[in-house]
Design goal:
CATH superfamily of the largest domain: Type I PLP-dependent aspartate aminotransferase-like (Major domain)
Strand order of the largest sheet: 4-10-9-8-7-5-6
Order of helices and strands: EEEHHEHEHEHEHEHEEHEEHHEEHEEHEH
Radius of gyration: 22 Å
Shape: globular
Distance between the termini: 42 Å
CATH architecture of the largest domain: 3-Layer(aba) Sandwich
Number of domains: 2
Helix content: 25-40%
Number of helices: 13
Amino acid sequence: MSVLAFPSRTGGCLRGVEDFPILSRRIRNKPLVYLDNAATTQKPEVVIEAESLYYRESNANIHRGVHWLSQRATDLYDEGRESVRRLLNAARSDEIVFTRGTTEAINLVAYSWGCSQLRAGDEVLITAMEHHSNIVPWQLVCEQTGALLRVVPVSDCGELDLEAFEALLGPRTRMFAVAHVSNALGTVNPLPWLIERAHAAGARVLVDGAQAVAHMPVDVRALGCDFYAFSGHKLYGPTGIGALYGRAELLATMPPWQGGGDMIRTVSFERTTYAPPPQRFEAGTPNIAGVVGLAAAIGYVEHLGLDKIAAHEQALLAHATEAVGAIDGVRLIGTAAHKSGILSFTVDGIHPHDLGTILDTQGIAIRAGHHCAMPLMTRLGIPGTARASFALYNDENDIAALVAAIRKAQHMFNGGGQP
């Protein structure tokens, strides 16, 4: 299939086996039902082919070469940056920094912006639903700078306590770091409202967009955030590639956080001067093939339409919430009014890991555990959950298979459902 070809599809999913080769696999002699998309999405043929084609026809290092291959690789890399700018509706392509993923992007902001801006007594505000990647970097930087970490609580249904958020904002709040969508619960946070109030208090805002960009349109200018981070592998792209959006005036004030090639302007033993953003934050040879694959993934979802993807996944979530929630002994975890395509639940008498193992025998891939959100699990009083998460290639047959497998697990453990 051509890298630019998007075959038509009819049926219950937007795209299926003809676009995603791995979906034709059988797991343990069962058809693969892949419901672990919040951890990583599968890759369409156009992404696999784009990355392969780069290595076959254009492989070279970028920026410093004068030969044709280097110039071609540089063009592809720059085109990838423009693809990310377009996806996020950033004002300028130099507001896009390539990273290994969301985790590295948040660490970049924490260490570059945080270590240079935070002082003893300043406050960093996060929420109780954050992924560890949006907790630990801020803890480390607070330890180094003397800043204090404050946490916005969440309700039993998994929504932010907005009154507590406003009460926690104060003159010492310098950064508010928040997930666009909770990876553990699917809660979609009210970002425009949160960002407006954080800015009114004088704070900067970083958004963890790892669970958002593949599932809904994102417009950083409309949101008004200062930083936005995401990972390519959750956007149908390769692993090991992601991006950070940062407002140009902020990036310009931030020091490098890694040193090496391509982030310098001049080097002497007495003094080094640095390149402007984004090169300042991209030390060393980057993941060029990953950028090419990410650009193909962005083109893929843009062709389908993120609004259509969002509508499809919302319909799946509604159906799954009703079907799984109707099973005796199942408790849904995270019932916020506004959710993305993540369904977390527990089953009476069955540890989430055991449930995940039984579902695997039926060819069903889910995630089980604390989902890198241990403080949230502690708040909810549970060790972890089973998590089914949806993508554009899932359909109602996948949900039916999930329901049947949960009932089988109940029968195996305690007879609490139909075999």
